[in-house]
Structures are given as C-alpha cells and as structure tokens.
Amino acid sequence: MADGDLTLGGIFPLHYKVEMPETDYSKQPLTAQCKGFDPRAFRWALTLRLAVEEINQREDLLPNHTLGYKIFDSCFTPVTAQRAVLAALNGQDVAHSSMCSGAGPLLAVIGESGSSQTIVLSRTLQPFEIPLISYFSTCSCLSDRRQFPTFFRVVPNDDYQVKAIAQLLRKFGWTWIGVVTEDHAYGRFALQGLKREIENTDICLAYHEMIPKDFKRERVLEILKVMKRSTARVVVVFSVEGEFYPFLKEFMTQNITGIQWIASEAWITASMLAESFSFLTGTIGFAIRQGQIPGLGDYLMTVDPWKYPSSPIVNELWESLYSCSPSPSVPSSRNSHLPPCTGQEKLQLQHSAYFDTSSPRVAYNVYKAVYATAHALHNLIVCKPGSGPFDHLSCANISNVYPWQFQHYLQDVSFSISGENMNFDENGDSIPSYDLINWQTGPDGEIQFVKVGFYDGSKGAKDAGKELVIQEDSIMWPGNQNKVLVSVCSESCVPGFRKAVHQGQPICCFDCIPCDTGKVSNETDSVDCTPCPEDYWSNAAGTRCIPKAVEFLTHDAMGVALTLIAVVGACLTVAVLVVFHYYRNTPIIRTNNSELSFFILFALALCFLCALVFIGEPTSWSCMLRHTAFSITFSLCISCILGKTLVVLVAFTATRPGYKVMKWLGPKQQRVIIFSCTMVQVMIGAAWLITSPPFPSRNTQYQRSKIILECRVGSDVAFWCVLGYIGLQASVCFILAFLARKLPGNFNEAKYITFSMLIFCAVWLAFVPAYVSSPGKFTTAVEIFAILASSFGLLLCLFAPKCYIILLKPERNTKQHLIGKWMQ
User: Which residue ranges does the record assign to the G-protein coupled receptors family 3 profile domain (predicted)?
Assistant: First the structure.
C-alpha cells in the first residue's frame, strides 16, 4: 500500500486456489485459506507498484499530484475476490502487510485475471460507479455495457480470440477437434464464441468437456477417457493455468499421445506448465501482445526478505523459489516446516515464473492499465472551467473527484505507450491484437515461447480473412516434428467424388461418393457434383466435362454394309432390267406386260438408291429428301405392281363371252392409274413439306452421354399418312393378287405378286415397333433395312422366277408352254 492524492485498487491472484475449512455446523467455521503461491501474479502486482512510482516521479503526468495504491489477493476465486474488493472500499487490512493495506479515496480498481472473479468485482463496484480496469479478463460477456457499464479492459475480449483460433484451424485443415474448458464464465463464453465462429464451416466438435470447478479425479478420468477414444488429434483448451495444472498431472498418467494442443491466451505463456510438462512441446496458441516495461527486471530484484522482513508474501516468494523459509517466525508463513535460509539468496534467471521479463504480456497489460488511469486523471486535472464536459461546461473538483467523473475521462483516454496507441471503444475494450506462440524445446532442453505469427483484429472488412499471419517454417509441432498433424473425421474426397454426410453425425464425418454420370466435381471435398452443360458429358474420372460424342449413321462398318447392300440391290435391278430389255421379245416378257415390268424395275432401282440418302450427317435438305424420295419411289413401285395385278386379273376374266373390260385397261389407262396413284403420294408429301417438313435434330435425352443427330419427321400425322398410303396400296394389291392366284397358266404371275406383297407387308409391319424402340443411329438403320428388305422381296419374288426361265430354262420360254395348261 502507498498513500497518494488519488488512490487505485489492485486485485491479483497471488494464490491460485482456496482451501475450504471443514465444518460440522456446530460452531463458526474458520476463514478459507489461500494456497498455492503464484510468483507470476506477484510480478503483476509489483508491476502496478513500479508503474505508480514511475508516474509519481514524472513532471509531465499528474504534476503536483501523486497516485496511491492498495493491493489485495483474490486467491483466484470469486468469493475471495469479492471480499478483497469490499476491503478495498472499506479500507480493511485483509492482507496484513505494509505493502497491501491502508485506506484512501478509491477512484478505480485494476483487476482481475479471471473472468468469473471480474464479473463479481464489476457488479460489486457498479453501484458506486467505480471503474474496473481488467488486465487479463477476456470473457466476451463483459463487453455488454448494459450489465457492466463501469468495466474496461486492456486485453482483447474472447470474440477476437475465437476468431483467431477458427482461422488457425482452417489454415492447417484441422476440421475434427476436441474442446476442453474450465467450468467458469470464461470457458463457457469462449466455447459459445468458438461454436459461433465454426458454424457453417467444415470444422466440427468431436467432443466438449469441462474441467470441474472442484477438482474430482473421477470426473477428470472420464474426460481423459473421451480424449483417448476420440479420433480428434487437436484439442483446444480454454482454461487458466491454475485449473489446468491438476488436469495435466492426471493426463500424464494415461499414456495419451499424438495430441496437438491449442492454447488460449490464459495459459499459452504459463511458465509453470512449461516447466512441469514437457509433453506440451508443440503447443500453439494466441498470447496477448507483449510490450516493454523499462526497469522491471531490476525492480523485481530489489524485493527480498531483508527489505520486507514482516511481509508473508515476500516470504512465500522465497519459499516458492528456493524451497526454504527465510522467516519462519512470521505467523502467516504457510510453509514453516521448510528448512531455513538467509533471505539473501540471489534471484536467478531460471526463476522464470517470477523473473521472466524478456517478453512481458500480462504484466505489460497491468502497466498499460495504470498508465490509462494516470492519463485519464491528468486530463481531468488539466480541465479548464468553462470548457469542461459536465453541466454548464464545468470541470471536476480535484479535491473531491467522483468516480463517474473519472470514468468519463477514462472512456475518452488516448495515449501512446511502447509504440502502441492505447484507447477504449464504446464497450470499454481495447484494440485486439495477438501474438501466435509456439512451445519449442530450446538448446538446454527447456520449453521456450517462440513467436511464429500474429493476429491483427483491427483490420477492416476489406481485409477480412487476412488478419492472421503465420511463419509456418518456424513452427515446431508435437514430438519435434516439422509435419503438421492431421485431425479429420473423414479423409478428404478427391475430385470426381462428393461428400455424403453420415446420418446423425457431424458434417465432418462423411463418405466419398462418386459423381453420377453427367456430373463432375473438380475440387477437393466437394459438397455436390455439378451437372455438365447439355452438349457435354463427364469423363470417366468425373473430374471434368468433355464434349459429348456425336452419333449418326455414318460410313462406319454398319453404314458401309448398308451402302454395299443398297448398291448391290440397285445393280441387280439394273441387271434384271438389261436381261428383260435383251429378251423383251420373248413370250414370258411379252405376256406379262413388259412396259409395267420396266416401270417396276425402274422404281425398284430408285428404292434401292434412296436408301443411300439416309446415310450421313442429317441436314435440312437430306431430311426432307430422304422421306419424300422414299415415299414417292415406293408409291410408284406399288402403283406399277397394282396396275400389273389389275391387268392379270382382267386379262383372264375378259376372255369370257360378253366381257369388254380389257379395252379400259390399255397402256394409256395403265399409265393413268400409275400416275394417279403416285400423284396422291406426291400431294401428301408436298403438303408435308409445306406445313411441317422433316428437320435435323440434336437428341440429347435418349442417351445422355451422346448427341444423336437425327431427322425429326416434323409432322407425325404426315409421316404416318405416307406410310399408311403405301400400306393401303400394298393391301389392295395383295387382295387383288390373292383373288387371281388360281387363274390357269403355267406361269401365273399373280401368285408371285401375292407372295411379294405378303413379304412387303410383313417387313413394314415389323418395321413400326422396331423403328419406335431402336436407339440412336439404329433407328435410321432399321428404316434403311426395311427399305432394302422390302425392295429385295419385290425384286426376287417378281423377277427371279422369270430370270430363271429366261436364263436357265429357255425351253419353257415359249407361248405354247406358257398357255399350254390353260389351252388344255
């Protein structure tokens, strides 16, 4: 304690646990005893004292005024912290020390390190409107100005820390993590913030466990069992070192290896843990920004039992550092059973928990907090009446400053310290900034805290995602490895596959399913496969879209075969035509109407040749030509056969007495019949071409992996009318030929016409279902096959018997032989 014109309170966890006395409720219980001296927290308290002394010696800051201080021990528990702040308000001597006692006007309190204790302190001070400036309480809940209107802090709140941790997890691909927290507000709010940050990302929590407030070995063993069974290799820990220490002692006994620890700022620079647990090598986490405190190392060395012989705190420091008791007669000494020592032992650099001033962080925050109060008080003192911030532009009365007046100036304070601009935002928070710390083994085998990056939370929206900077080559991972540890629930899905989440499990646990045909994924861990454009299809690996294969009846093996068959059929037809022309004066040709035979052969040659139009890439002209040529040539052929059938039928019935029908079926009448029947088909075809002609089409639906080039008929009605008309002609011809099949004669052509029409109708009746069901180019092939088959049927049935007689049985090619049976 030190007196001054203006007094600050300081509350520090000089001990990290409280031993509650047993009670039987029959007598008044004893006071709880603070146990476990914390040299680091004592260094923080001495930093406050150093800062106050520096300020009191400066002439540019608080001139003609001095600061005083009162320091109390919170013992790192909310109840003891509340007792400490009440003592600070009431002036009670709870610490029993000349360093930590006394009374005076209290304008602000600097404390505490734990968020749970800080919540209690802030709510206790709130009715008095006394500002509380925390140096190490990071819970985001404290930024709520409605609940904590007098709270300030010089350390970033956990909202920024969890953002930094989430970026760190994404950076190294750690998507399957465990979280261990302390069972206090700090741990609970940090967990909520982390869940909020990883929501809608590919990071999942494998488990979340809380270290119990009151250490219970059974519960800790349950937590360790979960960690051992889990496949998560990365564990994020939000806890202070005091509660994490006993947990780690049990962890050592369970033979759990391969863990990558992610530390919160509460323990990332805890020398006590680093000195006690070598397996923590490779730990990485974010520490609050370090700064420089001039003269702190020398100042710490001035504290010894000779200078403060009656101070139990100094005695406990010596007991902690040297395991000896410099003043066993001091009543409050907790370890009077220790061997005595002189108290003149020299502080050594190896006492890092107390003497580590190379990169002060929490102590630097204490230093900033003291200077923030000093600058705010300075602005209050230099206020000039008539330009003040209060009613009627008045200033505060320096001899009677109200805490709420001081808070006004504290809210607006702005100054520079160690090259850092210091101010508070509207929630009482300071600028968020972290150092990324990695625990590495030094040359002497001791763990060192190495800075391997930083996080700048002050970056604006335009730099979102660029706050974290990491020097990856400088990181040493667990087991002194240079390779990043993998922590995933399921291995990544390579391109060509998509993720399928297991039902009832986190999204990080999935199966890799190959993309369906026609869909691709060209990225790792694709959630879904992307359909290819209409003219593209997926490759075999499913990684990219390639142009679809274009299919039509071209001059491949099938096309060449059909072409050869069509050419052979046309050549045979021409050959028969030559034979008939050469033997045109023989009886078998003369008696069977040679003119109609020549017409039929000409029409058949066109039928064979029109099949060639169906082969090749469909175009507008070829589509129109193939259907009209096919319909007209076949209609012409059937019309000629129909005329021949009528002539045969009438020729035999006209010989009966009284019949004069033959005069109506002379050559001219026959031509008229052929022309009329053919013109009907020509008119149907013309109407088809005018109204809705056939057109080329790209069919991508029938076979998704190919583009089928085909000719659409345009009008289905016209297409079936064309086929129907040919079928009608063939049916009429078949009926007439069937009626004339038993007419006398050694060569009854009506029989062969009947058989040819039977084949023709069978072929085209089979064509309809085959045409409808055949895929792709086979549809065209079926149509060509029907044309060729029916043409060969007509050619062979009508002309093969005559050619046989003409070429092989010339003795039967006589008039007597042809009509012999009839004459008999």
Answer: 558-817
Cβ burial, residue 19 (10 Å; 0-12/13-18/19+): exposed
Domain boundaries, the chain: 6-18+32-157+293-423, 158-292+431-474, 497-547, 557-823
pLDDT of the residue at 96 = 41
Burial of 730 (0-12, 13-18, 19+ CB in 10 A): buried
β-pairing, 67-73 vs 6-12, is parallel
**DSSP type of residue 135:** S
Instruction: Provide CATH code, domain 557-823.
Output: 1.20.1070.10
The answer to whether 288 and 264 have CB atoms below 8 angstroms apart is no
Q: What is the pLDDT of residue 348?
A: 63
The candidate with the shortest Cα–Cα distance to 809, out of 583, 561, 470, 574, is: 583
For residue 457, give the 3-state DSSP assignment: coil
In the chain (824 residues long), the average pLDDT of successive 10-residue segments reads 86 86 73 83 94 94 91 90 88 45 68 90 93 92 94 92 93 94 89 92 92 87 94 94 89 90 92 88 93 90 82 85 71 60 68 74 94 95 91 89 92 90 92 92 88 86 80 91 89 91 84 92 90 89 90 83 91 91 82 79 89 86 85 87 76 56 65 86 90 85 80 86 87 81 60 81 78 71 86 87 85 68 42
CB 46 within 8 A of CB 300: yes
Q: Which two tokens stand for residue 728?
A: 């009608």
- Do domains 158-292+431-474 and 557-823 share one topology? The answer is no
pTM comes to 0.63
Whole-number Å distance between alpha carbons of 783 and 512: 46
DSSP for 650-715, please give it.
HHHHTTSTT--GGGGGSHHHHHHHHHHHHHHHHHHHHHHHHHS--EEEEE-SSSTTEEEEEEE-S-
Quick one: pLDDT at residue 94? 43
Cβ atoms 129, 111 nearer than 8 A = no
Distance CA 485, CA 479 (A): 10
Domain 158-292+431-474 has CATH 3.40.50.2300: yes
Residue 690, C-beta contacts closer than 8 angstroms, at least 6 positions apart: none
pLDDT of 349: 53
CATH H-level, domain 6-18+32-157+293-423: superfamily:
Response regulator (3.40.50.2300)
